[in-house]
Specification:
The chain is mostly beta strands and 109 residues long. The chain has one domain: Sandwich (Immunoglobulin-like), CATH 2.60.40. 0% of the residues lie in helices and 48% in strands. It contains no helices and nine strands. A five-stranded antiparallel β-sheet has the order 1-3-4-7-6, with no helix packed on it. A four-stranded antiparallel β-sheet has the order 2-9-8-5, with no helix packed on it. The chain starts with a strand and ends with a strand.
């Protein structure tokens, strides 16, 4: 992730970008991630912890009507609190389109 931005692996014809604003991804920290994803339909975001179990979002996805983040697609904000260090798999899907992002979360300082 450079400059707080991550690009997802997406199904054919779909793009996904996420922006953390440069916040460190660490256990216990409240993190806002803004997603821009092409496709059709509402966004569903499923965090999967390193132990393979799904977690709930702290809040969201909240659709944004306007933004200064310029990537393709519609935009949503999501809130996370990661409860364990390691590689988190974030699954994102819409009625048409799906994507995956992997985020490395560090132990609390």
């Amino acid at each position: 992730m450079s400059n707080g931005e991550v690009q997802g692996s997406a199904s054919r014809g779909i793009s996904l970008w996420g922006l953390t604003g440069g916040q460190p991804l660490s256990v216990g920290a409240q993190i806002k991630i803004v997603w821009r994803m092409t496709g059709v339909g509402p966004l569903v975001v499923t965090p999967v912890a390193p132990d393979g179990r799904t977690r709930s979002l702290l809040w969201g996805p909240a659709y944004h009507l306007s933004s200064s983040y310029h990537r393709p697609g519609q935009e949503w904000g999501t809130g996370f609190v990661f409860d364990q260090p390691g590689c988190w798999h974030i699954e994102l899907s819409r009625t048409i389109g799906r994507a995956d992002v992997y985020l490395e979360v560090t132990a609390a300082a």
